[in-house]
Design brief:
The protein is α/β, with parallel strands linked by helices. The chain has helices spanning 17-20, 33-43, 57-64, 112-122, 186-195, 215-232; strands at residues 2-6, 27-28, 31-32, 48-53, 73-78, 99-103, 106-108, 126-136, 140-144, 150-155, 158-170, 200-204, 209-211. The protein has one domain (2-129, 163-232): Spore Coat Polysaccharide Biosynthesis Protein SpsA, Chain A. The two termini are 20 Å apart.
């Protein structure tokens, strides 16, 4: 099975670290986050990975090479200009069977085998791994109507959202909806699929998940990885 890893972003929220190091090479414990993800993919039966690269691509290639050390086949697809989060997929050749797509900076205990099996059972064109996340607003939220009359006041509310984990399973037909060499983000792709009547499925996951986009999340992920390493990378 093939996987496409989106590894071309600049990681602006992790500056200044990401100014000299691509986000997928940010260390988690004693290895880059992308190495953790690749080991999880290999365990799930993925044997070929395409890294879509742009920012500091040479460092990624220098570290991972062609996958010899991981006993995987790793290839590189180069973005000449920013193409968003789904646009780079159109540059990847030979995606002719069900394939996995992930961001390059996700730490999770999600079982990719179970995700793929769920996707195949549901029969959709796309499956999005999703997670429940609470967002606390540390301010008083004032509710008003069109006439500026206050209709409610909520002190420091907490809202629950279902969020994308940055991990997807796609059928090859999804490429029909991604124009070549054009900027396209995942939310816009999903809306295109829905508007076309395609079946898009959500896979709910309530285990550990952390996006490494912000410095505080990155620090927490490092601590959690060191405390829970066998949960992320079980021994054979």
């Amino acid at each position: 099975m093939k996987a496409v890893v989106l590894a071309g972003g600049k990681g602006a929220r992790l500056a200044p670290y990401s100014s000299i190091l691509p986000k997928p090479l940010m260390p988690i414990g004693d290895m880059p986050i992308l190495e953790v993800m690749l080991m999880q993919m290999k365990r799930a039966g993925v044997d070929e990975v395409i890294l879509t690269v742009g920012h500091l691509a040479s460092l990624l290639r220098a570290y991972f090479g062609y996958g010899e050390q991981l006993n995987m086949n790793i290839h590189y697809s180069y973005e000449q200009k920013p193409l968003g989060t789904s646009g780079p997929i159109a540059l990847v050749e030979n995606l002719d069977a069900t394939f996995l797509v992930t961001n390059g900076d996700v730490l999770t205990t999600l079982d990719l085998k179970e995700l793929i099996a769920f996707h195949q059972k549901e029969g959709g064109i796309a499956t999005i791994a999703v997670h429940q996340r609470q967002v606390r607003i540390d301010l008083g939220v004032v509710q008003t109507d069109a006439n500026h009359t206050v209709t409610g006041y909520i002190e420091k509310p907490t809202y629950d959202y279902t969020v994308s984990m940055g991990i997807y399973v796609f059928e090859p037909r999804v490429l029909e909806y991604i124009p070549a060499d054009q900027y396209l983000d995942f939310p816009d792709l999903v809306l295109k699929l829905i508007a076309a009547g395609e079946k898009v499925v959500a896979y709910p996951f309530d285990g550990y998940w952390m996006d490494l986009g912000r410095p505080d999340d990155y620090e927490k992920a490092n601590e959690d990885f060191n405390n829970m390493k066998l949960q992320f990378l079980p021994e054979e």
